[in-house]
């Protein structure tokens, strides 16, 4: 397979470390220099075979890689400027919904308008998430692809198709009018919530927590809260994220295994995040109208404020789930409500709520997991074991499968088998 | 060269109970072993991908149907005695090395800490045509 002429590839392999050395000395950032060199090598590999090797190949590579470095630094600076602009904005007026005829578009309106555009209902959730992270969050396609464990080309395609979709639908780049405002804001909050959830409880793959995505979701939601300080649901969503993320460090054990809320070491919870979340939700609730994010944040706050699992104010949580059931139709609420009912009125009462589950829950692994937990509380080991195993066989999350299998195994051990 | 190491679970080629019937410490040892194996492959630059599949209970069989809508059959299949549990995709220099990795994952510990000796199918992944010089 060898030829006696040194190929373009051989030449590039010889030059690569030299060019990386020049750039690292010049910029002082090896990792970035190395990336830039990779791109220059790629450009050379595509151009040289067709156009011939330049007279000074090393100089050519240094020049192309340096240009890449400059572009990187510029986009990094632009991203930082954008962030400072958003974080430092004090809204000129205190209206939550500017009129459609607002002529004076300031920078913070631009940020919001961009969010409304990226989260437009014409897009699928996956597309809206990708576009939001890139256009508003300033992440690269590669970073987003890595966060969602898909090839970069796939993510690039998803983003460009989302842009085409928006272009084709003719959605204008401006604030939605007051009639459309609530629904459009809901869409934005839903996308931010999905980003957070993806990071917090990754539904696929071996890793339980993808911290970067939840942090990114918090950062974006914080900027929306800065722009719309009077909106109670925005404050509720930010509080919910903070109060949930606060438990993150205690949610996994030393070997990466799942640790349920009741068994978490509460000294590892982030008290700063809890304090901020509690303050946010306490201030938001009286402002109304009360929406699902505020109620969920209130529930998270009750959990986070309990010094031990035993001291959890379950009657209050049960009451809040009652409110949530009236304003939201998410079937998973039924499961959490059953747990709260069991803690207040005993496991039999909780199980009774799940005797006739809504169709959306039929066969859902969490239905089995909750039933198993309630059977265990009731002391019915056989039923608990059977349901833990059924849940383990139905989950698509590896850490959860391990956790549920372990729950079944522990019961079997205690039963003396 | 890339190889797929296929973990094909078949009731007739295993002589151990289902994982959720093991002792807790046996499950934990098994998970630890798999994690360390994958970390080792990643550190050696040989790991391309490693995925586990959800159990057959959630499987669906789909067949297009000339008469109209596709036919979707829901699991679980009581008669299904074999299923793909998961796979590794490794990128290594020789077939011998792929076989070595397969042997290592086959020896994952099970009940009583004994190696499971699961059969692992080693399949080369087809690549671009050979370079013509």
From the structure above, extract its key features:
heterodimer; A: 417 residues; mainly alpha; 18 helices; 67% helix; globular; B: 133 residues; alpha+beta; Alpha-Beta Plaits; 4-stranded antiparallel sheet; two-stranded antiparallel ribbon; 2 helices; flat
What does this molecule look like?
The complex is a heterodimer of chains A (417) and B (133). By secondary structure, chain A is mostly helical. Chain A has a domain at 329-416. Chain A is 67% helix and 0% strand. Chain A is built from 18 helices and no strands. In chain A, α14 packs parallel to α16 (365-377). By secondary structure, chain B is an alpha+beta fold. Chain B has a single domain (2-64, 71-124), classed as Dimeric alpha+beta barrel (Alpha-Beta Plaits, 2-Layer Sandwich), CATH 3.30.70. Chain B is 24% helix and 32% strand. Chain B has helices at 24-43, 95-106, and strands spanning 2-10, 47-52, 60-65, 68-74, 82-91, 120-124. In chain B, strands 2-5-1-6 form a 4-stranded antiparallel β-sheet, with helices on one face. In chain B, β3 (60-65) and β4 form a beta hairpin. The longest helix of chain B has 20 residues, at 24-43. Chain B is flat and about 50 Å long. Chain B starts with a strand and ends in a 9-residue tail after the last strand. The chains are: A mainly alpha (417), B alpha+beta (133). Chain A binds chain B through residues 1, 3, 206, 255-257, 388-389, 392-396, 398, 402, 404-406, 408-410, 412-413, and chain B through 19-24, 26-28, 31-32, 35, 38, 50, 52, 54-55, 57-58, 76, 131, 133.
């Amino acid at each position: 397979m060898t030829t006696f002429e040194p190929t373009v590839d051989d030449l590039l392999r010889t030059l690569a470390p030299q060019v990386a050395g020049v750039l690292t000395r010049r910029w002082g950032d090896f990792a970035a220099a190395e990336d830039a060199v990779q791109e220059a090598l790629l450009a050379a590999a595509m151009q040289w075979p067709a156009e011939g090797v330049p007279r000074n190949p090393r100089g050519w590579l240094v020049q192309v890689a340096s240009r890449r470095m400059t572009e990187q630094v510029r986009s990094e600076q632009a991203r930082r400027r954008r962030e400072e602009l958003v974080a430092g904005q004090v809204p000129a007026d205190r209206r939550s919904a500017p009129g459609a005829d607002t002529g004076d578009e300031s920078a913070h309106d631009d940020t919001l308008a961009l969010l409304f555009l990226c989260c437009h209902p014409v897009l699928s959730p996956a597309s809206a998430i990708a576009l939001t992270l890139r256009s508003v969050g300033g992440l690269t396609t590669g970073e987003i692809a890595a966060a969602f464990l898909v090839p970069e080309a796939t993510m690039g395609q998803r983003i460009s198709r989302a842009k085409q979709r928006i272009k084709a639908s003719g959605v204008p780049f401006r604030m939605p009018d007051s009639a459309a405002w609530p629904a459009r804001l809901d869409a934005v909050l839903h996308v931010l919530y999905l980003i957070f959830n993806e990071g917090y409880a990754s539904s696929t793959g071996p890793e339980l927590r993808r911290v970067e995505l939840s942090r990114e979701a918090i950062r974006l939601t914080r900027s929306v809260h800065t722009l719309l300080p009077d909106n109670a649901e925005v404050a509720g969503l930010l509080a919910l994220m903070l109060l949930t993320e606060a438990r993150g460090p205690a949610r996994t054990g030393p070997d990466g295994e799942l640790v349920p809320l009741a068994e978490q070491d509460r000294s590892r919870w982030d008290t700063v995040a809890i304090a901020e979340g509690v303050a946010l939700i306490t201030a938001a609730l009286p402002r109304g109208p009360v929406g699902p994010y505020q109620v969920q944040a209130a529930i998270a706050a009750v959990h986070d404020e309990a010094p031990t699992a035993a001291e959890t104010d379950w009657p209050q949580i049960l009451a809040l789930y009652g409110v949530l059931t009236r304003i939201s139709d998410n079937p998973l609420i039924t499961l959490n409500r059953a747990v709260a009912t069991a803690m207040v009125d005993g496991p039999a009462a909780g199980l009774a709520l799940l005797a006739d589950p809504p169709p959306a829950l039929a066969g859902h692994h969490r239905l089995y997991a909750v039933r198993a937990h309630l059977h265990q509380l009731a002391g019915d080991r056989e039923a608990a074991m059977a349901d833990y195993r059924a849940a383990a066989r139905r989950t698509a999350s590896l850490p959860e499968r391990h956790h549920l299998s372990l729950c079944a195994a522990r019961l079997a051990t205690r039963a003396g088998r | 060269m890339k190889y797929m190491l296929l973990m094909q679970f078949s009731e007739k080629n295993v002589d151990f109970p289902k994982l959720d019937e093991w002792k807790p410490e046996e499950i934990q040892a098994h998970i630890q072993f798999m994690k360390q194996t994958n970390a080792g492959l990643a550190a050696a630059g040989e790991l391309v991908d490693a995925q586990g599949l959800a159990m057959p209970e959630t499987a669906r069989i789909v067949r297009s149907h000339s008469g109209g809508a596709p036919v979707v059959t829901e699991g679980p299949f009581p008669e299904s005695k074999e299923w793909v549990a998961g796979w590794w995709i490794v990128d290594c220099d020789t077939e011998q090395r792929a076989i070595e990795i397969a042997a290592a994952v086959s020896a994952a510990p099970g009940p009583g800490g004994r190696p499971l000796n699961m059969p692992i199918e080693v399949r080369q992944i087809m690549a671009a045509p050979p370079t013509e010089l």
